[in-house]
Amino acid sequence: MDRSIPAIITALFLLGVLVLMWRSWHKRSQRDRTLTAGYPRPEGGAAADLLATAEAYYVATTPRDAPLERLAIPGLGFRARAALTVTAQGITLDLDGNAPLYVPGDAIDQVGAAQLAIDRVVETDGLVRLSWRLNTPGTDRRDVDSFFRIIDPNDRARLIDSIRTITAPAHQDESEA
Question: Under CATH, what is the fold of the domain 47-171?
Fold first, then answer.
């Protein structure tokens, strides 16, 4: 009997924490349900336009410059293994368990290195940060950052350089000190 009261209190506390976690994720999903990930794919897009590919782990998508606030956008809400394909027109994000997402080059603002996102902290410049604009109607511009952990370090520089070639020069992040 002397151990049952603390066990009940601990179980109720853990149940309360789980309920709060579920409630937070549910509210976040409701808040972000109108956000659309990706753009329509362009017609054509020959394999000759291929600039780079890389296998990666998708970490998260967050509001621009807020790396600790995850967005629950359908298709980008959870971590996954990803295949990134850069063409002359844009980049395709193929996350396991989701339909491929296309981001055109003119929607990409910058690409660079990062060290942390949400609950992932890695070595200096261990993540690739893709800063882009969501496909939102009208003038409601939503800037986001998507974070990836490139599996093969040899692909990292080639991928970043390829993405920089398809972004507008005014948007490139060249001053990483």
Answer: PH-domain like (2.30.29)
Give me the mean pLDDT over the 6-20 stretch: 93
The set of residues, in sequence order, having a beta carbon less than 8 Å from that of 67 and lying 6+ positions away, is: 114, 116, 117, 118, 145, 147
Q: Whole-prediction pTM value?
A: 0.79
- Residue 147's closest CA among 73, 82, 61? 61
**HEC-encoded secondary structure of 106-126:** HHEEEEEEECEECCEECCCCC
| Token pair of 1 as six digits | 């009997």
Among residues 163, 37, 156, 173, the alpha carbon closest in space to that of 88 is found at 163
Are 103 and 90 in contact, with CB atoms under 8 Å apart? yes
What pLDDT, on the 0 to 100 scale, is given for residue 159?
A: 93
Region of 66 (left: φ > 0; alpha: ψ -120 to 50; beta: rest) is beta
Question: Residue 73 is encoded by which pair of tokens?
Answer: 């956008």
Question: What local confidence, expressed as pLDDT, does residue 162 receive?
Answer: 93
Domain boundaries, the chain: 47-171
The torsion region of residue 33 among left (phi > 0), alpha (psi -120 to 50) and beta comes to alpha
